[in-house]
Amino acid sequence: MRRLIVALFLLLLCTCVAADGIIVPVMPPHKKVGYLELRDHRANIRVVNGVCYVDVEEVFYNPNSIQIEGEYIFPLPKGAMPSKFSLVIDGKEIKGKVLEKNEARRIYESIVRRMRDPALLEYYDYNLFRAKVFPIPPRAERKVLFSYQYELPRKGDFYEIMYPFKIEGVSGKPVDNVVISFDIEERAPVKQVFSPTHKIDVKKDGKKAKGAYEESNVKPEKDFILYYSVAKERFAFSFLSARQEGEDGFFLLGLSAPSKPSSSKDIIPKDVVFVIDVSGSMSGEKIEQAKAGLRFFVEHLRKDDFFNIVTFSSDVELFRDGFVPSTRKNLDDALEFVDGISAGGGTNINDALLRALSMEGHKGYVQYVVFLTDGEPTVGIQDPDEIVKNVKKTIGDERLFIFGVGYDVNTILLDRLAEVGGGVVEYVEPGENLEIAISSFYSKIMEPALEDITIRFEGVRTYKLHPPTPGDIFFGQDILIVGRYRGYGKGRLALGAKKHGKPFTLDEEVDFVRSGGEEFIPLLWAQRRVAYLLSEIRINGEKKELVDEVVALGEKYGIVTPYTSYLVTKEEKMAMRDASPKLGMFLSAPRAAKGKNAVQYSKQLDEMAEGGMTQMPSLVSIKRVGDKVFFLKDGVYVDGEYEAVSYTHLR
């Protein structure tokens, strides 16, 4: 009971969340004014060799009918350097003061009493920048420019960027536009870049990386956190772990390949066959985009690669009988073959795949089959179970990469084929550019670095890893693996793989912590585990033990799933469907193999497996405080780990 009260108190501190930079109205007690609205928020984060420079731009609006004075406050990340702060409002520099954390806490507490916003106390261990803002005319805007810098802390092998970013409870309305961009430059190549809190776009180029989080009409309710690592050697591990006393631990393992090969000899040569559906349903724009993507594929083959092209409709046609070298003559002939492709007929998936998989590859080469279709089988063997069985019997070392185009594809069949083929499936919805999808995908797999990777853990017992097997890694690629562990202390990671058909090894000592660690790792693991279980249910059917585990994880970690969506109120479900139709499809758990719902459901699972669902829509009914989750039941937030408790109402 005591633990529950403490947890509920912590939740109370976080229910009305504070802010990054906010303006608090300062008025005589007899006058009541509404909070200022934050209409636009932009933060540019620039990192140079581990030092973080932050520029903030915010536009505030005074909705009141009177002129007011305000007090701008900003909680500063630990270690921030006061000498580099500045505040500019509408072109005029405003003097402010940096308060150390003890004095800052007294300020927070006084603001809590005025604003009834207890979440400001979340920053009790932070310093505080404070400056007066006057005047703020009625129904007018004020732009605030604010800058600071600090040295980034290290968390294991990762640098951590933490940007205070909590505005819920400060403004009655969502922020119209939010952009947090980042630009990283290091002495060594930048490797893993990910956010456990927000969905980001990232582009890496050697020693640089840049990206952004963007959203409109949003009430941010958590700080923006970004992790990145830098290369230590040609192939490198990055490692973090977390564990609570008396429980099994969680770990996050990153495997990085060099950004670029040191020479062409480092690149593993490929046997690649492109299998393209040319049935009647592909006619028009789809076939032209597919041909353009295929031309990109042919034109970017390396001189050591072998290739072939298979087209299929009712019948199967090959460019050549088997793999051919990438000579200029063969490439020109292939481009001519592509130009002559036209669409018509049925869809003979079984024969096309078996013909591609029957080609004999070369020793020491990686073997890829890139399969594209926009429909389900209509000619030859049409039973999905039999097609999967035939592929499983025929496939050897090939990796099967699949493109499903449009809403007429049999998503369950394609998902099963990707699983059997050790590859991935990508769905291209109507309106998306197929040429860009094909060329972008092929750019990622053009330069294989290692194949058939295995990782052995010594010193502790690991289990429930996601992804279960790393597969292959390409130059410039990073692989993130999450899992559980039993025991603690020093351990060793041992990587085994093949390079040009010969063994390749890498090992490193790591620390599986006894207690503590990063709180985001358990949630990241739970989300990937749930995505894996839902995929298993979708492909192989519902089994009680799988559904039970999904429900248990959903309740423990506050993850909304088709089996735990009852935790969300009806109003929230409707808002989520209005804001994100794809999420609505996800919540409804469609069982159909075909159609828009089926395609979007499968894509949503892929995003969840990659950690892209860490940022769920704002839910009043679910609150996370650190590693604890609370659910709103009958107006009361209840600790998710307790089935029978004495409830304390949160006011």
Structure description:
- With 651 residues, the chain is of the alpha+beta class.
- The chain is 25% helix and 36% strand.
- It has 13 helices and 35 strands.
- The strands form 7 sheets. The protein has an 8-stranded mixed β-sheet with strand order 6-5-9-3-2-12-15-14, with no helix packed on it. Strands 19, 20, 21, 22, 23, 24 and 25 form a 7-stranded mixed β-sheet that branches. Strands 27-29-18-17-32 form a 5-stranded antiparallel β-sheet, with helices on one face.
- A hairpin with a 2-residue loop joins strand 2 and strand 3 (51-61).
- The chain is globular and about 80 Å long.
Spell out the blueprint of helices and strands.
Blueprint: H1 2-15, E1 22-26, E2 37-48, E3 51-61, E4 68-76, E5 86-89, E6 92-93, E7 97-99, H2 101-115, E8 127-136, E9 141-151, E10 154-155, E11 158-163, E12 175-185, E13 190-194, E14 201-205, E15 208-218, E16 224-230, E17 236-243, E18 249-256, E19 270-277, H3 285-299, E20 306-312, E21 316-318, E22 324-325, H4 328-339, H5 349-357, E23 366-373, H6 384-394, E24 399-405, H7 411-420, E25 425-428, H8 434-445, E26 448-458, E27 461-466, E28 471-474, E29 478-486, E30 489-499, E31 502-512, E32 516-517, H9 520-540, H10 544-557, H11 570-579, H12 581-588, H13 596-609, E33 622-625, E34 628-633, E35 636-639
